[in-house]
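Quick one, T. Sequence first:
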Amino acid sequence: MAGAAGAALSGTGGGAAAAAGPEAGAGTAAAAGPASPARPDPRSEFRGVWIATVANRDWPSRTGLTAAEQRAELVALLDTAVERRLNVVVLQVRPTADALWPSPYEPWTQFLTGTQGRDPGWDPLGTAVAEAHARGLELHAWFNPYRVANHPDPTRLVADHPARRHPEWVLPYGGKLYYNPGLPEVRRFVQDAMLDALRRYDIDAVHWDDYFYPYPVAGQVFADDEAYARYGEDFPDKASWRRNNTDLLVSEMAARIKDIKPHVTFGVSPFGVWRNIATDPEGSETRAGVQTYDDLYADTRKWIREGWVDHVVPQLYWNIGLPAADYAKLLPWWDAVVRGTGVGLYIGEALYKAGDPAQPAAWQDPKELSRHLELAAAYATVGGHCFFAAEEVASDPIGAMTTVVADHYPTRVRARGQG
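Structure tokens:
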């Protein structure tokens, strides 16, 4: 998630997984100004944090810890969320076609023990659900649908991995392996694998991030011609067919979640730019190098209009005033997208950029994120924020999270989904 935002502005693509997410167009929304400042129930607000497990980004701190050490680190992150007056943890439980629970579909993740398929000796997802609920935290289970591996070698996968049993499902691209979203059997399988966790555990939400079709890599081709020839005859071009494949993944998953557990919500955290206004008059006033509609084949605006998602957490990972992607201009665009739809809007915040010397000057100011929340408070559609990611929530290198808490979170409140 984190790596995607910077690369997408420059047009280089990438979406580095190891680092890591309308009714009117941007011009109309900006001209109309914010909605009424009247807020929803002040006793409820989404205050979330992502806990990324891919490449041990946030947790566990490294592979090979004992079960007790892994559990202690996880509980410490939950306790930190409580201390920061947060109420939602979004835990990555399927980072690379694997699992942080005893799944009958996919192997144990390598990010626990260092060896894919090795039982860690405990149930991380089951423990996370119980420990989060004991602390008054919601537990949102975060899945990545199509990423198989952050390397290109299928032989490095455990021998009984579904990607090895079905090599026809897998495509190499950009030095990684992906399931082919154009195959109906793949779409069904990845849904089944994710829904296993929903059936087993009392999770509060199913959560997806910004990875659908992979971020574009210059000079490389995602080689799905064979699937397009087989299934794409009813579409005018490959791009339309790919978008339909992603639409089907989202709409089918939404229906299946409601069939299994109607009270569990479904949220998606897309890259923050649907389309630039230069591409589409209904797009945002941005000049991003990546547009979700065109490059990731993810029509996030349609999913909101169709009601396939219960909430959306756009990754607005840019500072106020950034010319290519201004937080202050993207905020009203997303407000216009969700207004009147009944879909919840929570803003993804780039806490990881605060104090990073590689980032613009705005991110060296501990008040930058607090100003984001102040701006968002003017929009009645915005029901809260989610911070990337847990390591920075805990370490808070320049005090940006401490400032947010002091300025905006005077007391703990329940999450929007809690009764």
